[in-house]
Amino acid sequence: MDRDTEELVRRATKGDVHSFVELTRRFQKVAFGSALALLRDFQRAEDATQEAFVAAWTGLPALADPAAFPGWLRGIVRHHAFRVLRRQQLQMLPLSEAEELASDEPAPDRRIEQQQQIAAAMAAIADLPPLQREPATLFYVHDCSQQDIATFLGLSVATVNNRLHAARSHLKEKMLAMTPGMMQAHALPDDFANRVGRLAEARGRIVEILFDPAHLPDVLTELAVSDERDRSAIAVQVIQRPGGGIVRGISTTAVTAVPRGATVLSSGRQCETPVDLAGFEQVVPLLAGRGVGIHQGVKLLETGIKVIDVMCPLIAGGSVVIAGEVKTGISVVTEELVRRLSGGTAPLSLFSLIPRWPDAPQGWSLSEQMKTDGFSEGTVGAVQTFFFRSGDGSWVADQLPGLASADAVIHLTSDMIRAKIYPAVDVMTSRSRCLEAMVLDDEHATIVERVRDAIAALRATEPQPASGAGSVDLDRARKLQNFFGQPFFVAEPYTKRPGSHVSRDEALRGCREILDGVHDDLPVDAFYWSGSIAEIRNGNVKKAG
Asked: How far is residue 41 from each of residues 93, 121, 195, measured CA to CA in Å?
């Protein structure tokens, strides 16, 4: 091993995480290949390699001779590979399932052909004699050089070449051709070394982790915190990236005995495990701060979004959950609130519950999607946003009480999407603690009750034609439902329609006048996706003219 690498080992032994990241970068290929030689499964080999590097970081202070690092690391890799083998049997899937892999390229028939080639190669390598199997795997999986293999296995280059030559002879009997790089698409990702971070702070289940600012894990990414005492890893989900190389996460169990500086590895994969509602209820107050008492005189935040300001008003210093099904606009509503409120001085905490997307393209990430859409990640000015994974089913009434620790819940539904109401806020299931505590003025509270009665009556009679049928009261309810739709500023590039801001007083007045029949002369469609009553009136006059 060269002197530069030995110096990296010395510095890493003293706790220099940057040196350890560089060691990880240098040895990640051979470590992965060694794990693959035993496990013969790419995903499990990657998992074992991650676990091995976590163990290597925590165990480095006990390494007396820096020159022994390659062989020492290989022993750890093999130990964790054997642990994976003991933990569960390898799952064998039929080749036909390759057709269901989500990918833009190559074509399905080409993917099947590639998988057949890889399966044949892995089977051929597995049949090699033990002394040839590991060098062959290291050589063919990620183009590891003979020198790298020699260093990692503690052999001379001549011995490595002899074993590779003998391996080629055996492989030719089973395969016509096999070249380095043929399995490169399944090798350890090149960014693996950048996935190493360290624990900065832990408060129960809330953890803060320091990464290279240029290589932060995406929100909703799975992390693993090394728990040296219990010789295990604690799973963490990234919920926020506040800046400065810090990511904030929520762990599956309390991180109490893990010291600062402990190794954290990012899986590079999006978390699929939905948040536990009981645990979620506990962390909301911790993340949002002490919260506010709901009392007379509490300060309301005006968003300029009619349905929110009327039906689920937000509180200065409070917490808001945005929940719904896939493709109901959760990220859009979150970003719209951020843009409207981040310039103020009153703090607000948003909790955006992102459902699993079964049909998401391979490699899709929420962070990249928000960047593509021109969105922030919601922590701007007075507003901070936390992203949690939720299930992919409907949010039903039985689940919503699990969000009781939040001051307001904005519930989005596919029913509203099908009715072409944007934002797709369900006024019957969305709520605000202001309404429950009866701290709003009497007029506001009365309007909310009248709106809910009208919408409930409308839904009880559905399906009905969108307009031109039913009683006057039902037409007024349809106008209310359309009135709660509104153009958003963040959607302007897509809708080509300027966003609108309607004050709370104007929104309340509009609801009251619709319910009182002041605008019975206007058709139901006139209220669709517009701003204030004045805008609706003016727009109808222009159409009539």
From this structure: 12, 12, 21
